[in-house]
């Protein structure tokens, strides 16, 4: 009997020893495997935490004007910009020991396993926030062992590479809250119309309960179940001594105002402008399409929503609804180059082709101010005279004869000044000036004004026969409005990535492009189109707008058989308007020929309403004198019409007008017979 007992004892010891050896080997292998996994995770480095996020576009006042996304609303916010109550409520329901474990809550895993064993079904989850974050970032939500193992591996990598706050921030910004809202910012805006930073305790407890099952616990799906889960979370917060019972009861009974709409689901504002912004992101920042659409960027643009609305409204109101005429408009701040409004067509849904930035059309007489600036640089003055008459130009270098025509074939048939030639848009004067300077002179000048489309050095270039874009003309005239400084169209002031880091910021450059005195003299010449004192063989080209203006404008209209333009400015705002048919069909109806001017003046008056009236300031190197507009000579008291005109210092006229001396002598005799009327002092003061 003792022998049998001894044998059994020895056999037990043998099995125990074998078990210990095998166990030790297994434990060592498991330890080696674990160390190997850790080393492998370390070698791989931190996993990328980037997820698709909505890119937001902002106007100049910070209002959101649009967004790009793939149907998923995602907006990243830093942890410090998330309500503390929201963070605490999430930790209470999802992972109470988040800051104590290293990715896995073994006590919770054991408890969940026991609960599942008792119920013989999957009844309790044990995933930590780190595990859920790993699953959301890298894995599908399939329930397989492979997915579980990969989830554990990604959890280890995340915990090794990032701080707890970084993990929590990432989790809160990626978890799904239902209704297309990914992340706490999108959810806060959708359910309560608030930013995540402004969420209250009752709202936080309800939001924290949604990710468990958005189709079940969303207040829009079932307010009853949402309230039950809210109370559960509040009770857990009481147990963890985060809040008092009194606060929990008050929060549970608080009335919640559920919005149920995405705050950024606005109709796309200024769609042509936003397309131009995206093109700028590609060309200036060299960003790819995916980054632009899903990179979670915050793009701060130059758009003025009020001016944009006015531009669209005036185009829609002033062009007949049954007309096939198209329109392009660009409004810019001439000092900064910031594009404030852009219309690329009458209906973006029907045609996204941007006529403001893509279409190349003949600018007509809007090219003349650039020509006359060139002439003033080379010694011409507003008083320089040439004969306005039907003229055929013949050339010795095998060029064909060229005969430019004035509008309606009207000519002065006498000498006229540059000031009057520009105000009346005399084509013969312009071609003569162009040929006198040399055809290449204007080509070179155009480049200084920021126009990049190629120009043909031909006699007709003076009349705008080489195509340009609307935005180029707005930019060119900005050089006049800002006193001759270099300027380029700017759509974007700043770009931030999804973490709020500034990746681009526009920095203005102070570079001269034109001679300030010549630019100002040309600007003053352009005010002439609105001054009836320059009427001659025909009315000034801005005659139809004179009664509608409330401030000093400078500008130039232009027309060809197929294009109508109006480009003009104040010191605060430059606007270029083009109207015409896409197919280049001739514009024949009188009403359609007036669309460009009509849109321009109504937009400018509306956009500048309430703004201070600013005049153009004469720089050093200029002088002003009163002249007789008919001949450009110094005006005397005898001249019936006098106009203050600016010149580059040293080029002003010195000869006085003598044409009205005889008329004055005759009138002087008559005036002696008139009885002198005594004027009261206050009337004298008023006149003074």
Automatic annotation (TrEMBL):
<keyword id="KW-0328">Glycosyltransferase</keyword>
<keyword id="KW-0133">Cell shape</keyword>
<keyword id="KW-0472">Membrane</keyword>
<keyword id="KW-0961">Cell wall biogenesis/degradation</keyword>
<keyword id="KW-0573">Peptidoglycan synthesis</keyword>
<keyword id="KW-0511">Multifunctional enzyme</keyword>
<feature type="transmembrane region" description="Helical">
    <location>
        <begin position="18"/>
        <end position="41"/>
    </location>
</feature>
<keyword id="KW-0645">Protease</keyword>
<keyword id="KW-0121">Carboxypeptidase</keyword>
<dbReference type="InterPro" id="IPR050396">
    <property type="entry name" value="Glycosyltr_51/Transpeptidase"/>
</dbReference>
<keyword id="KW-0378">Hydrolase</keyword>
<feature type="domain" description="Penicillin-binding protein transpeptidase">
    <location>
        <begin position="329"/>
        <end position="578"/>
    </location>
</feature>
<dbReference type="InterPro" id="IPR001264">
    <property type="entry name" value="Glyco_trans_51"/>
</dbReference>
<keyword id="KW-0812">Transmembrane</keyword>
<feature type="domain" description="Glycosyl transferase family 51">
    <location>
        <begin position="62"/>
        <end position="237"/>
    </location>
</feature>
<protein>
    <submittedName>
        <fullName>1A family penicillin-binding protein</fullName>
    </submittedName>
</protein>
<keyword id="KW-1133">Transmembrane helix</keyword>
<dbReference type="InterPro" id="IPR012338">
    <property type="entry name" value="Beta-lactam/transpept-like"/>
</dbReference>
<dbReference type="Pfam" id="PF00912">
    <property type="entry name" value="Transgly"/>
</dbReference>
<dbReference type="InterPro" id="IPR036950">
    <property type="entry name" value="PBP_transglycosylase"/>
</dbReference>
<dbReference type="InterPro" id="IPR001460">
    <property type="entry name" value="PCN-bd_Tpept"/>
</dbReference>
<dbReference type="InterPro" id="IPR023346">
    <property type="entry name" value="Lysozyme-like_dom_sf"/>
</dbReference>
<keyword id="KW-1003">Cell membrane</keyword>
<keyword id="KW-0808">Transferase</keyword>
<dbReference type="Pfam" id="PF00905">
    <property type="entry name" value="Transpeptidase"/>
</dbReference>
